[in-house]
Amino acid sequence: MGAAGFGIVSVVAFVVLAFFTIVFMASRYKRCPSDKVLVIYGRVEKGRSSKTIHGGGAFVWPLIQDYAYLSLTPITISIPLENALSLQNIRINVPSTFTVGVSTTQEIMSNAAERILRLPQNAIEEMAKEIIFGQLRLTVASLTIEQINQDRESFLEAIRRNVEPELNKIGLQLINVNITDITDASEYISSIGKKAASEAINQAKVDVAEQSKLGAIGEANAIREQEIKVAEAMAAAEIGRKTADANQRQRVQEQEAQAVQGENTANANIAKYNAELEIQRAKANADSEKGKKTAEADQRIFVQEQEASAVKGENTSKASIADYNAELEVKRAAALKQAEVAKYEAQVAIQQAVYKAEQERLRAEEVVRQEIEKNKIEIAAEAEAEKTRREAQGVADGILAKYKAEAEGTLKLLEAKAEGYQKLVESVGGDAQAASTLLMIEKLEELVAKQVEAISNLKIDKITVWDSGSSANGGSSTSNFISNLFKSLPPLQDISEMAGVQLPEYLGKVKGQSTSSASIEPDSTPSAPETKDKKK
Description:
By secondary structure, the protein is an alpha+beta fold. The chain has helices at 3-27, 106-115, 121-141, 145-150, 152-168, 188-216, 219-318, 321-427, 432-442, 444-456, 477-487, 492-498; strands at 29-31, 36-42, 50-53, 57-59, 65-71, 75-85, 91-102, 172-179, 183-184. Helix 3 (121-141) packs across helix 5 (152-168) and helix 7 (219-318) runs antiparallel to helix 8 (321-427). The longest helix has 107 residues, at 321-427. The chain is elongated and about 180 Å long.
């Protein structure tokens, strides 16, 4: 073959090589559909394990890089949450439907590429379901039944605030939340509706009855009834408020204790999840390191093969076929040797990475366990201190309310007495002396009772009377003794004078003045009991 023939062959070979090179390079350019995320892994940017692209395309280098797709199709997950404990310790059922999907935010896409790239859809659903279950229970435990049932917008916002950050950690975002019908086994929610309806009906009946009563009775009676009802309602409202405050403080203390217990459980679950997440991250790093080492080994083999091909071309043009074959065998042996060495070196590096990852996992587990124990001790101590403080505050509030109620009662009693005294003085034309006389007359019965009680309480073991049957005034000695005994009591006139009050004459008058005592002239001398001349 002449020089011209050899030149033609060279041109044809170059054209064929260029064509296959263009086709191969075109096949390595990957375009990303709008409903997927393109993940390029292998040797990418420094410090990153993968590169994520949404829309457009990128060139994937052969041997040192590979690619995969993440679907952006939303995933619908049904969450039949049952017996979730609310803030009031009432268990409720919250059936709901969550729609999640892979996020197109760069940071969250990177999380998805690291954690769910090769997972099947059912595994992704199960992982998201576990996260949603835990965060939904935590959200329900922080709200009352009224907040959950009546303010759905705030409830959904609280769910999104708790669930979405946890889903972002695995590369997912929360698209939609749909809460269907909230129920509870104790029928508390239905009782709230029945109570509101009953209150409205009862209030309407009360209004009708009140209007009928106002039409039947006079204006004066209506005003009096209104004042009485207002006073009773204020007293009942005050009693109800005090009772509600006491019940609220008790319920708050119980709920805080339940919340502390729930927080401990949630912290333990979070710590467990974080530990598992660290294990998965370590495994992913190990797999990434393994892929990196394999790619480096393949790259070295490819470079050696290209060098061998170059040497082959040089030997073909400069040496004979025999020399070329000998040199080619030598190069093949060298390339095979180098490939085997690279293979074993990669295996050693992988084993070292696995050993290091296992050490880090064990160390992380121990640190997490110690941190959980520390948090439990701190939370228990804080809960005990808060409980003691709230109990002391409750006792202090009770004592303050008791003394306040007693003071208000004493004030109302004094105000009522003052109003009565004022009306009494007004009824006697402003004569204070006459008013005090009327008050004294009201107390006469009590004063006489006290005098009788003074005599009845005298402890006399024995009375001996020697009765001769006659006396200077014509009566017996015994009757005179009894009469003198009654006369020895303080007369009512003297008691009235001590108080500065003049009794009316129809109650008796002083017969004579004496320095020692004054007697009231009776209408008739009381008959003395018959006595016999004997010793009693």
